[in-house]
């Protein structure tokens, strides 16, 4: 079996021994559950235990199926094929080329970093039974919904996963407590963004969801903060939480809100994912449906004048504060050859208002001799706007598994001095993805555990390098190493103390406790120890994860340091 990616990148220590009590039980160990014991679990959960067969196995001997393999290859870069699997990952680095459809047919298909088993949970009782079995047998426990994760948090070698994807169900309710009175949407842990949006739209409402329609709402997205096309208007996803239903490490189903288990509610609202309990449902604020206007445009370098791209980027950044302060959220990409705005969202604004908002940028680009010819749109609802820019629904148009990530929050105070950094990143071959927004007025009075640096930031930056499914493994490892050791330090030097959005970042972040959690880390660790004293829950760079190490074969052992 190929050693796991984590060992290649020298992230964690190797050498945990199979017989030591400080390690999780691993396949092949004498402590690994017998077939009868797995059968008993399967019976307990109503036949919902799934033994992992990697999704890419039809592309390998002895199960090769040319037609099915061709289908897999054609759909592999889109989320739907992975969300309907109990084990497949959208981040190819963590799939470890163990069994993907782009590797040679005669290469053995192994489980590698995939979960060993999963329980297709449709109730809190299923979740509790799975969790209790993992505790009793001392097996690594993983929480998974869609597998839409760039940090390897929804998988793990030799693990038992609770698969929450079919914890569906939506309900619009009238919420009233001391903190909020108004419409709310309750969603099961398996509800994805497109489902939540449709349920809200049917009642003439909107909710904050991810730009990618297939992202689950209640899990890592919201628990990690969660930006949205509506964030300038309504804040991050974590700013909109009202209540969670959670199965805790002791197998109990509890509610967490500002008035009940408030510390757990605080931790789940931005303090990282898969680490404090298994969320069964989340209730979030719902806002009025409204007209929405949008725009998109592309600026390409004129032939013979490549320097104009950098001037265009500078002009865009100069205009950005007034754009987002006008109530707009804007996504933009740039490299050394283009500046693209694929989606601008102006909630409850007319097309004429958007044109006015963008006029200063248009004037600046015109002064540079650059044509500015946006495509403007206006829709009577956010739902239609969203479908236009991120559809077709349900799956959407965003490809997955095509990039390696780094990331940083860009403080408003550093934007005017960012030009040299932007140019250097572009010249290094980085595709820069920016989410321009203003969430400064949300999350007041420490209402949640969102990284405080979000409130002073004007852009959430993702730095990306391309992933090549057919490239040699060592080449892709070198690309990831380049992101960590060469590219990420450049933006960090330009933004000291800024932090990063944990869901779109480098999983090898060296000072991850400070970068992802900041001043909240110590309090989050106390809450982690209160609700999970035995450290059952674990995920990459989660609060308290430094208590564990991952060995060459994926075995999970207590850290010795």
TrEMBL record:
The keyword Phosphoprotein belongs to this UniProt entry's keyword annotation: no
GO molecular function: FAD binding; oxidoreductase activity
Residue ranges of domain FAD-binding PCMH-type in the record: 110-289
InterPro entries xrefs: BBE, FAD-bd_PCMH, FAD-bd_PCMH-like_sf, FAD-bd_PCMH_sub2, FAD-linked_Oxidoreductases_BP, Oxid_FAD_bind_N
Pfam families named among the record's database cross-references: BBE, FAD_binding_4
Signal peptide: 1-18
Keywords, ordered alphabetically: Oxidoreductase, Signal
UniProt-listed PANTHER family: FAD BINDING DOMAIN PROTEIN (AFU_ORTHOLOGUE AFUA_6G12070)-RELATED, GULONOLACTONE OXIDASE
Family: Belongs to the oxygen-dependent FAD-linked oxidoreductase family.
Protein's name according to its UniProt entry: Probable isoamyl alcohol oxidase
Source organism of the structure: Fusarium oxysporum
